[in-house]
Write a structure and sequence with these properties.
The protein has 7 helices and 3 strands. It is mostly helical. A 3-stranded antiparallel β-sheet has the order 1-3-2. It starts with 9 loop residues before the first helix and ends in a 14-residue tail after the last helix. The relative contact order is 0.11.
Length: 154
Amino acid sequence: MADDIATWPTGRLLAAAARRVEREWNAHLSAWDLNHASLPVIVILAYADHSQRELAAATGVTEQTMSRILERMERTGYVTRIAHPGDRRRHVISLTAAGRSVLADAADPAPAEEMATRGLTPEQVDELRELLTLMVTAHDHVPDAPPGTPSTAG
């Protein structure tokens, strides 16, 4: 086989697996007009209202990206944006009743877990989780660097 998957570098394997799970997860979430980027926003807003800046920081995206996510969620009726009472340049983002309703169904972790661990034994799932936890925490200690630099590239 010209492109034997077993010979791929680890970073490529991780990226390919993540993309496949993300595509399947997005297809699942599309039933609620959500995607992998908008669902965490609903979860965060279920606890308290936030500013766009706070949501961007909490989800690890730029404010510009969060603006696009929120525009879509506002159109679907899941969130509202109102002017901040103390700063007219800022907005307070709130979850609507429709957003709270969709949270119960769309945020069920079981489908995501099944998608992410398909084909693995329970023991392999435990091992995978342990290894991924180690990798994520190890990268927490890498100084901030632009994406794609050697310290963050796979």
